[in-house]
Amino acid sequence: MLNRPIAAIDMGTNSFHMIIAKKENNQVQVLDREKVVVRLGEGGSDYDYITPNAEKRAIETLKAFKVIAKKYNAVIQAVATSAVREAKNQKEFLYKVYKETGIKVKVIPGQEEGRLIYLGVLQIVPAYEQHALVVDIGGGSTEIILGYKANPLFIRSVKLGAVRLTERFFPNGILNPIKIKEAENYVKNFIIDTYEEFKNQNLSFEVAIGSSGTAKTVVELIHQNKKNEFSYLELLDLWEKISRYETPEKRQKKLDIDENRADILPAGVIILKQIFETFKISKMVFSPYALREGVLYELLYRKNKKNDLKEIRRNSCINLLKRFNQEILLNTANVSLKILKYIGKEYPELLSHKELLEYASLLHNIGVAIAHTSHHKHSYYIISQTEYLLGFTKNEIELIACIARYHRKSFPNKKHSEFETLTPTEQNLVEFYAGILRIAIGLTRTHVEPEIEIEKKEDHYIFYIITKNPSDAELLCNMAQLRKELLENKLQKRIVFYSTR
Fold it and tell me: Domains in the chain, ordered, with CATH?
């Protein structure tokens, strides 16, 4: 376990990424990030040679990364993937990098790359207890991993990448129907071979996850950062749009994408589309974490690889509260879950996301760190924008932020931008959970966790509140009475509070 910060550098075929972080209170604190498009594999003959120009770009980028890392007194761990892995002049390149930058680069094989990608993905996507198929399309290779809990069960590194395929079939990023068909057939052969291995081992998956640049660009183009997942039909629709535009310049202008991605995006989407079709994927979740986060986590937790995702998620919430010097409201969270347990008997669909209610209950007051006035809105901002919540999807963080935002004052309203962007199902969940949280806040105003019994009548619910001191129970009933309207609206029944049974 290292005391100094770690600067994990992923020297990819298309771009170099660096993340700097340290371990604090058994949580990972991200200090800085940087990305530079290097095109390390550009210009070589099928990636067997790193050109002088690519070498120069790489060294300049690593020098800049080292300057940033030095500011944090960080230990640098650099890993290189397919472009360096396959280069015949690998040793010469690595020697020159070390001579000019002082950075020792670890060239990792495809299997290790896949393992570290899976490890990185697990830190942010809540798929620990599911069989997860992870697809990482890089510039020079594509990693396909099946994992369950902390164990990768299947890893294949395929020599297909967005840059590699572009240079082979679409020089300068120019598309034409004949070359598109040739590229699709070429990719299909690779992916079918991988799928046959997968199928022969009687493997299956419950969730599909995409990481790195292609998946990131796809989800951004489809949902404009409002969701972190996309369907096969949405991918097909996007491909139809992409394939209309022959040149990178047109794609950049019409689709509003980064110029460094406009030329290689079609190749990446062809690979992704074929994986969807071959593996019969209906929906894919995007993971912003990949190889570099896996390297980081491996180093920070080398002596303690605890992969209980629920604990990671809950601890990150508590760590965020400590970071803002805010009270850890365990009583409120416990009472929220007690109420949900009973309400869930009539509305079982609410139970599958109960962790979100727990975390929102813990975090709802964090906005007080900015100001007490409108602190519910400040809570929304902190939760939705922080980098310190681990193990969640972007969508889950948005839901937690919304629940916290509506713990007081106005009810959820479609005129509010943060609520309007949610799906109807998510809106319903936020309304129910915010209604429950409001009552839980009232029932824990004295910092005493009461016993609660709930009885359903034909036209109303009775909440019996029991404490050691009867006067405390009466006060809590009065506090909860002031906060019951939202949940009453959702239940379409009155709620009555009694301080004894």
Answer: 6-108 (3.30.420.40), 111-283 (3.30.420.150), 309-498 (1.10.3210.10)
